[in-house]
Amino acid sequence: MGSRVLVTGGAGFIGSHTCLVLLEAGYDLLILDNFANSSPEALTRVAAVANVALGSQRLQIQRGDIRDPITLDGLFSAAAANGRPFDAVIHFAGLKAVSESIKKPLLYWDINVAGSRTLLAAMDAHACRTLVFSSSATVYGYPVTVPIPESAPIQPNNPYGFSKAAVEQMLTDLNSSAPNTWRIASLRYFNPVGAHPSGRIGEDPMGIPNNLFPFVTQVAVGRRDQLRVFGSDWPTHDGTGVRDYIHVMDLAEGHKAALTTLLNQGPQHLTCNLGSGDGVSVLDVVNAFSAASGQDIPYALVDRRPGDAAVTVADPSHAADILQWRTKRTLGDICRDGWAWQQANPMGYRQSA
Ligand code: NAD
Ligand code: UD1
Fold this sequence. Notes:
Largest sheet: 7 strands, parallel
Distance between the termini: 32 Å
CATH architecture: 3-Layer(aba) Sandwich
Radius of gyration: 19 Å
Number of helices: 11
Strand content: 15-25%
Shape: globular
Bound molecules: nicotinamide-adenine-dinucleotide, uridine-diphosphate-N-acetylglucosamine
Strand order of the largest sheet: 3-2-1-4-5-6-11
Protein backbone atom coordinates (compact mmCIF):
# COMPACT_ATOMS: atom_id res chain seq x y z
CA MET A 1 0.00 0.00 0.00
CA GLY A 2 1.29 3.45 -0.93
CA SER A 3 1.43 6.45 1.36
CA ARG A 4 -1.88 8.25 1.68
CA VAL A 5 -2.10 11.96 0.96
CA LEU A 6 -4.87 14.52 1.53
CA VAL A 7 -4.82 16.99 -1.37
CA THR A 8 -6.73 20.23 -0.86
CA GLY A 9 -7.69 21.97 -4.09
CA GLY A 10 -6.70 18.87 -6.03
CA ALA A 11 -9.25 19.51 -8.80
CA GLY A 12 -7.57 22.78 -9.80
CA PHE A 13 -5.00 23.45 -12.49
CA ILE A 14 -1.83 22.54 -10.59
CA GLY A 15 -3.57 20.10 -8.24
CA SER A 16 -5.02 17.94 -11.03
CA HIS A 17 -1.63 17.51 -12.74
CA THR A 18 0.06 16.80 -9.41
CA CYS A 19 -2.59 14.22 -8.49
CA LEU A 20 -1.90 12.42 -11.76
CA VAL A 21 1.84 12.33 -11.10
CA LEU A 22 1.29 11.10 -7.53
CA LEU A 23 -1.17 8.39 -8.59
CA GLU A 24 1.31 7.17 -11.18
CA ALA A 25 3.97 7.10 -8.43
CA GLY A 26 1.74 4.85 -6.28
CA TYR A 27 0.32 7.34 -3.75
CA ASP A 28 -3.30 6.96 -2.61
CA LEU A 29 -5.17 10.26 -2.61
CA LEU A 30 -8.17 11.91 -1.05
CA ILE A 31 -9.04 15.23 -2.67
CA LEU A 32 -10.87 17.93 -0.73
CA ASP A 33 -12.21 20.65 -3.02
CA ASN A 34 -15.25 22.92 -3.03
CA PHE A 35 -15.01 23.30 -6.83
CA ALA A 36 -15.17 27.09 -6.48
CA ASN A 37 -12.71 27.39 -9.36
CA SER A 38 -12.64 23.92 -10.90
CA SER A 39 -14.73 21.11 -12.27
CA PRO A 40 -15.19 17.51 -11.04
CA GLU A 41 -14.62 16.55 -14.69
CA ALA A 42 -10.92 17.28 -14.17
CA LEU A 43 -10.75 14.45 -11.62
CA THR A 44 -12.73 12.07 -13.82
CA ARG A 45 -10.04 12.61 -16.44
CA VAL A 46 -7.18 12.29 -13.96
CA ALA A 47 -8.62 8.91 -12.94
CA ALA A 48 -8.96 7.84 -16.58
CA VAL A 49 -5.41 8.87 -17.56
CA ALA A 50 -3.95 7.25 -14.41
CA ASN A 51 -6.14 4.18 -14.97
CA VAL A 52 -7.52 4.12 -11.43
CA ALA A 53 -11.14 3.85 -10.33
CA LEU A 54 -12.65 7.07 -9.04
CA GLY A 55 -13.96 6.43 -5.53
CA SER A 56 -11.63 3.47 -4.97
CA GLN A 57 -8.96 3.48 -2.28
CA ARG A 58 -6.59 5.00 -4.84
CA LEU A 59 -8.60 8.16 -5.49
CA GLN A 60 -11.36 9.54 -3.31
CA ILE A 61 -13.10 12.88 -3.56
CA GLN A 62 -14.77 14.93 -0.86
CA ARG A 63 -16.62 18.11 -1.77
CA GLY A 64 -15.99 20.58 1.05
CA ASP A 65 -14.34 23.75 2.24
CA ILE A 66 -10.96 23.99 3.97
CA ARG A 67 -12.45 26.62 6.28
CA ASP A 68 -14.85 24.09 7.78
CA PRO A 69 -13.26 22.43 10.85
CA ILE A 70 -16.04 19.83 11.06
CA THR A 71 -15.36 18.60 7.53
CA LEU A 72 -11.63 18.42 8.25
CA ASP A 73 -12.06 16.66 11.57
CA GLY A 74 -14.40 14.16 9.88
CA LEU A 75 -11.83 13.41 7.16
CA PHE A 76 -8.91 12.89 9.53
CA SER A 77 -11.04 10.86 12.00
CA ALA A 78 -12.47 8.60 9.28
CA ALA A 79 -9.01 8.04 7.81
CA ALA A 80 -7.66 6.97 11.21
CA ALA A 81 -10.73 4.82 11.96
CA ASN A 82 -10.26 2.99 8.65
CA GLY A 83 -6.63 2.29 9.46
CA ARG A 84 -5.43 4.57 6.63
CA PRO A 85 -4.41 7.85 8.32
CA PHE A 86 -2.97 10.53 6.07
CA ASP A 87 0.81 10.51 5.85
CA ALA A 88 0.86 14.04 4.43
CA VAL A 89 -1.18 16.95 3.12
CA ILE A 90 -0.58 18.89 -0.09
CA HIS A 91 -2.36 22.20 0.26
CA PHE A 92 -3.34 23.82 -3.07
CA ALA A 93 -6.77 25.16 -2.10
CA GLY A 94 -7.04 28.91 -2.26
CA LEU A 95 -7.72 31.92 -4.43
CA LYS A 96 -5.07 33.31 -6.78
CA ALA A 97 -6.26 36.38 -8.71
CA VAL A 98 -4.31 39.53 -7.86
CA SER A 99 -6.94 41.98 -9.10
CA GLU A 100 -9.74 40.19 -7.22
CA SER A 101 -7.62 40.23 -4.07
CA ILE A 102 -7.34 44.02 -4.29
CA LYS A 103 -11.14 44.29 -4.53
CA LYS A 104 -11.93 41.59 -1.93
CA PRO A 105 -9.02 41.46 0.55
CA LEU A 106 -11.07 39.93 3.37
CA LEU A 107 -12.02 37.01 1.13
CA TYR A 108 -8.33 36.34 0.47
CA TRP A 109 -7.42 36.58 4.16
CA ASP A 110 -10.36 34.30 4.94
CA ILE A 111 -9.74 31.53 2.39
CA ASN A 112 -5.98 31.67 1.97
CA VAL A 113 -4.92 32.55 5.52
CA ALA A 114 -7.76 31.53 7.88
CA GLY A 115 -8.43 28.44 5.71
CA SER A 116 -4.78 27.40 6.04
CA ARG A 117 -4.92 28.01 9.80
CA THR A 118 -7.99 25.75 10.09
CA LEU A 119 -6.25 23.06 8.07
CA LEU A 120 -3.08 23.27 10.18
CA ALA A 121 -5.08 23.04 13.40
CA ALA A 122 -6.80 19.88 12.15
CA MET A 123 -3.47 18.39 11.04
CA ASP A 124 -1.94 19.10 14.44
CA ALA A 125 -4.93 17.70 16.32
CA HIS A 126 -4.66 14.47 14.31
CA ALA A 127 -0.84 14.31 14.45
CA CYS A 128 -0.45 14.60 10.68
CA ARG A 129 2.49 17.00 10.48
CA THR A 130 3.81 16.71 6.93
CA LEU A 131 2.73 19.51 4.59
CA VAL A 132 3.54 20.74 1.10
CA PHE A 133 2.24 24.29 0.71
CA SER A 134 1.56 26.24 -2.52
CA SER A 135 3.31 29.53 -2.07
CA SER A 136 4.15 31.88 -4.90
CA ALA A 137 6.92 34.00 -6.36
CA THR A 138 4.49 36.84 -5.75
CA VAL A 139 5.88 37.00 -2.18
CA TYR A 140 8.99 38.70 -3.63
CA GLY A 141 6.94 41.65 -4.99
CA TYR A 142 9.13 43.82 -7.24
CA PRO A 143 12.34 41.78 -7.13
CA VAL A 144 15.55 43.49 -6.04
CA THR A 145 17.83 40.91 -7.69
CA VAL A 146 17.21 38.67 -10.69
CA PRO A 147 17.46 35.68 -10.79
CA ILE A 148 15.69 35.66 -7.42
CA PRO A 149 17.14 33.46 -4.64
CA GLU A 150 14.97 32.30 -1.71
CA SER A 151 16.93 34.70 0.53
CA ALA A 152 15.53 37.73 -1.33
CA PRO A 153 13.34 40.07 0.72
CA ILE A 154 9.70 39.13 1.17
CA GLN A 155 7.84 42.27 0.13
CA PRO A 156 4.46 41.51 -1.46
CA ASN A 157 2.65 44.33 -3.25
CA ASN A 158 -0.95 43.10 -3.22
CA PRO A 159 -3.33 41.27 -0.82
CA TYR A 160 -2.88 37.93 -2.62
CA GLY A 161 0.88 38.17 -2.11
CA PHE A 162 0.44 39.15 1.54
CA SER A 163 -1.84 36.14 2.07
CA LYS A 164 0.88 33.78 0.80
CA ALA A 165 3.59 35.51 2.85
CA ALA A 166 1.33 35.30 5.93
CA VAL A 167 0.89 31.54 5.55
CA GLU A 168 4.63 31.07 5.09
CA GLN A 169 5.14 33.03 8.34
CA MET A 170 2.49 30.94 10.10
CA LEU A 171 4.37 27.81 9.02
CA THR A 172 7.66 29.24 10.27
CA ASP A 173 6.06 30.06 13.64
CA LEU A 174 4.46 26.64 13.88
CA ASN A 175 7.75 24.93 13.11
CA SER A 176 9.53 27.03 15.76
CA SER A 177 6.86 26.25 18.35
CA ALA A 178 7.50 22.51 18.14
CA PRO A 179 11.08 21.89 16.95
CA ASN A 180 11.74 18.56 15.22
CA THR A 181 8.05 17.85 14.75
CA TRP A 182 6.83 19.27 11.46
CA ARG A 183 7.92 18.41 7.93
CA ILE A 184 7.00 21.40 5.77
CA ALA A 185 7.81 22.48 2.24
CA SER A 186 6.82 25.99 1.16
CA LEU A 187 7.08 25.97 -2.62
CA ARG A 188 7.27 29.32 -4.39
CA TYR A 189 5.98 28.75 -7.90
CA PHE A 190 6.96 31.04 -10.73
CA ASN A 191 4.58 31.03 -13.76
CA PRO A 192 2.89 27.62 -14.17
CA VAL A 193 1.65 27.01 -17.72
CA GLY A 194 1.05 24.23 -20.25
CA ALA A 195 -0.92 21.04 -19.83
CA HIS A 196 -0.62 17.26 -19.64
CA PRO A 197 0.68 15.97 -22.99
CA SER A 198 -2.44 13.81 -23.46
CA GLY A 199 -4.50 16.96 -24.04
CA ARG A 200 -7.03 15.60 -21.50
CA ILE A 201 -6.07 17.76 -18.50
CA GLY A 202 -5.22 21.45 -18.57
CA GLU A 203 -5.92 24.95 -17.33
CA ASP A 204 -9.55 26.05 -17.47
CA PRO A 205 -9.87 29.59 -16.14
CA MET A 206 -13.37 30.89 -15.54
CA GLY A 207 -14.24 34.05 -17.48
CA ILE A 208 -11.59 36.17 -19.18
CA PRO A 209 -8.12 34.87 -18.30
CA ASN A 210 -5.96 37.21 -16.22
CA ASN A 211 -2.77 35.44 -17.15
CA LEU A 212 -0.83 35.50 -20.39
CA PHE A 213 -0.65 31.85 -21.39
CA PRO A 214 -4.36 30.92 -21.22
CA PHE A 215 -5.17 34.17 -22.98
CA VAL A 216 -2.81 33.27 -25.83
CA THR A 217 -4.27 29.76 -26.16
CA GLN A 218 -7.80 31.20 -26.27
CA VAL A 219 -6.79 33.66 -29.01
CA ALA A 220 -5.27 30.78 -30.97
CA VAL A 221 -8.46 28.72 -30.74
CA GLY A 222 -10.64 31.68 -31.72
CA ARG A 223 -12.31 32.41 -28.36
CA ARG A 224 -10.67 35.87 -28.14
CA ASP A 225 -9.87 38.32 -30.95
CA GLN A 226 -6.46 39.50 -29.92
CA LEU A 227 -3.95 39.62 -27.10
CA ARG A 228 -3.18 42.90 -25.39
CA VAL A 229 0.55 43.06 -24.63
CA PHE A 230 0.93 45.05 -21.42
CA GLY A 231 3.87 47.36 -22.08
CA SER A 232 6.50 47.43 -24.82
CA ASP A 233 8.91 49.79 -23.08
CA TRP A 234 10.16 47.53 -20.29
CA PRO A 235 13.96 47.29 -19.91
CA THR A 236 14.07 43.81 -21.51
CA HIS A 237 15.45 42.35 -24.75
CA ASP A 238 12.29 43.22 -26.74
CA GLY A 239 10.56 45.69 -24.43
CA THR A 240 7.92 43.23 -23.17
CA GLY A 241 7.74 41.70 -19.68
CA VAL A 242 9.97 38.73 -18.90
CA ARG A 243 8.84 35.79 -16.75
CA ASP A 244 9.94 32.31 -15.76
CA TYR A 245 7.33 29.97 -17.28
CA ILE A 246 7.30 26.46 -15.84
CA HIS A 247 5.54 23.51 -17.48
CA VAL A 248 2.82 22.31 -15.11
CA MET A 249 4.13 18.72 -15.40
CA ASP A 250 7.58 19.87 -14.22
CA LEU A 251 5.82 21.63 -11.37
CA ALA A 252 3.82 18.50 -10.56
CA GLU A 253 7.05 16.51 -10.45
CA GLY A 254 8.49 19.18 -8.15
CA HIS A 255 5.68 18.40 -5.68
CA LYS A 256 6.46 14.71 -5.83
CA ALA A 257 10.12 15.50 -5.15
CA ALA A 258 9.21 17.72 -2.20
CA LEU A 259 6.85 15.13 -0.74
CA THR A 260 9.43 12.34 -1.07
CA THR A 261 12.09 14.54 0.49
CA LEU A 262 9.88 15.31 3.49
CA LEU A 263 8.76 11.72 3.97
CA ASN A 264 12.30 10.33 3.65
CA GLN A 265 14.12 12.96 5.70
CA GLY A 266 13.54 14.24 9.21
CA PRO A 267 11.46 17.19 10.35
CA GLN A 268 12.30 20.50 8.69
CA HIS A 269 10.78 23.55 7.04
CA LEU A 270 12.23 23.91 3.57
CA THR A 271 11.47 26.80 1.25
CA CYS A 272 12.12 26.43 -2.47
CA ASN A 273 11.62 28.33 -5.67
CA LEU A 274 10.07 26.16 -8.37
CA GLY A 275 11.02 27.73 -11.67
CA SER A 276 13.20 27.05 -14.68
CA GLY A 277 15.67 29.90 -14.31
CA ASP A 278 14.98 31.00 -17.91
CA GLY A 279 13.59 34.44 -18.72
CA VAL A 280 11.01 34.52 -21.54
CA SER A 281 9.27 37.65 -22.83
CA VAL A 282 5.62 38.09 -23.81
CA LEU A 283 6.60 38.22 -27.48
CA ASP A 284 8.79 35.12 -27.06
CA VAL A 285 5.65 33.30 -25.83
CA VAL A 286 3.57 34.63 -28.72
CA ASN A 287 6.16 33.53 -31.27
CA ALA A 288 6.73 30.10 -29.71
CA PHE A 289 2.99 29.47 -29.47
CA SER A 290 2.45 30.55 -33.04
CA ALA A 291 5.17 28.15 -34.19
CA ALA A 292 3.80 25.24 -32.12
CA SER A 293 0.17 25.73 -33.13
CA GLY A 294 0.52 27.01 -36.66
CA GLN A 295 -1.95 29.76 -35.67
CA ASP A 296 -1.51 33.48 -36.04
CA ILE A 297 -1.74 35.26 -32.65
CA PRO A 298 -2.92 38.82 -33.32
CA TYR A 299 -1.80 41.27 -30.65
CA ALA A 300 -1.82 44.96 -29.78
CA LEU A 301 0.83 46.75 -27.76
CA VAL A 302 -0.91 48.63 -24.94
CA ASP A 303 0.04 50.35 -21.67
CA ARG A 304 1.75 48.55 -18.83
CA ARG A 305 -0.49 46.73 -16.33
CA PRO A 306 -0.33 48.32 -12.87
CA GLY A 307 1.60 46.19 -10.40
CA ASP A 308 3.71 44.35 -13.01
CA ALA A 309 7.49 43.94 -12.73
CA ALA A 310 9.79 44.05 -15.74
CA VAL A 311 11.53 40.74 -15.06
CA THR A 312 10.78 37.88 -12.66
CA VAL A 313 13.03 34.84 -12.97
CA ALA A 314 13.84 32.15 -10.38
CA ASP A 315 17.19 31.10 -9.12
CA PRO A 316 16.30 27.38 -9.17
CA SER A 317 19.59 26.11 -7.66
CA HIS A 318 18.27 25.51 -4.12
CA ALA A 319 15.52 23.19 -5.41
CA ALA A 320 18.12 21.33 -7.46
CA ASP A 321 20.28 20.87 -4.35
CA ILE A 322 17.69 19.85 -1.82
CA LEU A 323 14.95 18.22 -3.90
CA GLN A 324 17.15 16.81 -6.68
CA TRP A 325 14.63 18.33 -9.04
CA ARG A 326 14.90 20.69 -11.97
CA THR A 327 12.71 21.50 -14.94
CA LYS A 328 13.07 19.25 -17.99
CA ARG A 329 10.56 20.69 -20.44
CA THR A 330 11.12 23.55 -22.91
CA LEU A 331 9.01 26.50 -24.00
CA GLY A 332 8.29 24.50 -27.16
CA ASP A 333 6.95 21.61 -25.03
CA ILE A 334 4.81 24.05 -23.04
CA CYS A 335 3.26 25.46 -26.22
CA ARG A 336 2.75 22.07 -27.87
CA ASP A 337 0.99 20.62 -24.80
CA GLY A 338 -0.99 23.79 -24.10
CA TRP A 339 -2.21 23.80 -27.68
CA ALA A 340 -3.14 20.09 -27.59
CA TRP A 341 -5.30 20.79 -24.52
CA GLN A 342 -6.93 23.94 -25.89
CA GLN A 343 -7.59 22.44 -29.32
CA ALA A 344 -9.23 19.32 -27.87
CA ASN A 345 -11.17 21.34 -25.26
CA PRO A 346 -11.91 24.76 -26.73
CA MET A 347 -14.39 25.49 -23.93
CA GLY A 348 -12.36 23.73 -21.24
CA TYR A 349 -14.03 21.08 -19.09
CA ARG A 350 -17.51 22.43 -19.80
CA GLN A 351 -17.42 20.62 -23.11
CA SER A 352 -17.24 16.86 -22.72
CA ALA A 353 -14.28 15.03 -24.20
P1 NAD B 1 -6.91 26.70 -9.11
O1 NAD B 1 -7.88 27.79 -8.80
O2 NAD B 1 -7.00 26.03 -10.41
O3 NAD B 1 -6.98 25.60 -7.96
C1 NAD B 1 -7.34 25.89 -6.64
C2 NAD B 1 -8.36 24.85 -6.19
O4 NAD B 1 -8.75 25.14 -4.85
C3 NAD B 1 -9.63 24.85 -7.04
O5 NAD B 1 -9.96 23.54 -7.41
C4 NAD B 1 -10.68 25.46 -6.12
O6 NAD B 1 -11.98 24.99 -6.40
C5 NAD B 1 -10.18 25.02 -4.76
N1 NAD B 1 -10.61 25.86 -3.65
C6 NAD B 1 -10.64 27.22 -3.61
N2 NAD B 1 -11.11 27.62 -2.42
C7 NAD B 1 -11.37 26.49 -1.69
C8 NAD B 1 -11.86 26.27 -0.38
N3 NAD B 1 -12.18 27.29 0.43
N4 NAD B 1 -12.00 25.00 0.04
C9 NAD B 1 -11.69 23.97 -0.78
N5 NAD B 1 -11.23 24.13 -2.02
C10 NAD B 1 -11.06 25.38 -2.48
O7 NAD B 1 -5.45 27.31 -8.88
P2 NAD B 1 -4.04 26.69 -9.24
O8 NAD B 1 -3.46 27.49 -10.33
O9 NAD B 1 -4.12 25.22 -9.38
O10 NAD B 1 -3.25 27.09 -7.91
C11 NAD B 1 -3.11 26.19 -6.82
C12 NAD B 1 -2.39 26.89 -5.70
O11 NAD B 1 -1.14 27.37 -6.17
C13 NAD B 1 -3.13 28.11 -5.14
O12 NAD B 1 -2.94 28.13 -3.73
C14 NAD B 1 -2.42 29.27 -5.79
O13 NAD B 1 -2.49 30.44 -5.01
C15 NAD B 1 -1.00 28.76 -5.89
N6 NAD B 1 -0.23 29.38 -6.98
C16 NAD B 1 -0.72 29.37 -8.26
C17 NAD B 1 -0.01 29.99 -9.28
C18 NAD B 1 -0.53 30.01 -10.69
O14 NAD B 1 -0.05 30.81 -11.48
N7 NAD B 1 -1.47 29.15 -11.09
C19 NAD B 1 1.21 30.60 -8.99
C20 NAD B 1 1.69 30.58 -7.69
C21 NAD B 1 0.96 29.96 -6.69
C1 UD1 C 1 0.46 37.13 -12.18
C2 UD1 C 1 0.33 37.83 -10.85
C3 UD1 C 1 1.08 37.02 -9.80
C4 UD1 C 1 0.50 35.62 -9.74
C5 UD1 C 1 0.56 34.99 -11.13
C6 UD1 C 1 -0.12 33.65 -11.16
C7 UD1 C 1 0.04 40.22 -11.33
C8 UD1 C 1 0.66 41.57 -11.27
N1 UD1 C 1 0.84 39.19 -10.97
O1 UD1 C 1 1.84 37.00 -12.45
O2 UD1 C 1 0.99 37.63 -8.54
O3 UD1 C 1 1.24 34.82 -8.83
O4 UD1 C 1 -0.09 35.85 -12.09
O5 UD1 C 1 -1.49 33.75 -10.95
O6 UD1 C 1 -1.13 40.07 -11.65
N2 UD1 C 1 0.54 39.90 -20.02
C9 UD1 C 1 0.15 40.53 -21.18
N3 UD1 C 1 -1.16 40.40 -21.58
C10 UD1 C 1 -2.08 39.67 -20.87
C11 UD1 C 1 -1.65 39.03 -19.68
C12 UD1 C 1 -0.35 39.17 -19.28
O7 UD1 C 1 0.94 41.19 -21.83
O8 UD1 C 1 -3.26 39.61 -21.28
C13 UD1 C 1 1.95 40.00 -19.60
C14 UD1 C 1 2.17 40.61 -18.23
O9 UD1 C 1 2.28 41.99 -18.29
C15 UD1 C 1 3.48 39.91 -17.80
C16 UD1 C 1 3.39 38.53 -18.49
O10 UD1 C 1 2.46 38.68 -19.55
O11 UD1 C 1 4.59 40.59 -18.33
C17 UD1 C 1 2.92 37.44 -17.56
O12 UD1 C 1 1.68 37.83 -16.96
P1 UD1 C 1 0.80 36.82 -16.10
O13 UD1 C 1 0.62 35.57 -16.84
O14 UD1 C 1 -0.42 37.55 -15.64
O15 UD1 C 1 1.73 36.48 -14.87
P2 UD1 C 1 2.45 37.44 -13.81
O16 UD1 C 1 2.15 38.86 -14.04
O17 UD1 C 1 3.89 37.06 -13.77
